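Quick illustration, no need to memorize.
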Amino acid sequence: MRTRVKDFIEISDYTSLDRLITTLVAIRDSLPESADPELKMRGDDVFGRRLSISYFRELTVREAELHDKYHGVEDADATLDALTEQLGSVEYKRRAA
């Protein structure tokens, strides 16, 4: 399973274009071939600007476990259906008014 990851790199106000290009090429070369990287500029004059690089990568074993645990919609629906069925079969006595 793949997920999109965001990596933020800080660029100072006075960075040479050659240094920026060298940094971006190094980042691109370090990514897997199927990463499909994207670059966006974010920020403003008050909080500063930064380049945001997002790319796809495989989930780690721990991330995959957590994803299955919290995003297992089919399992949650099956559990909910089973509980609803159990509650529907419970017999109870009414109290006299």
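Residues 2-58 form one domain.
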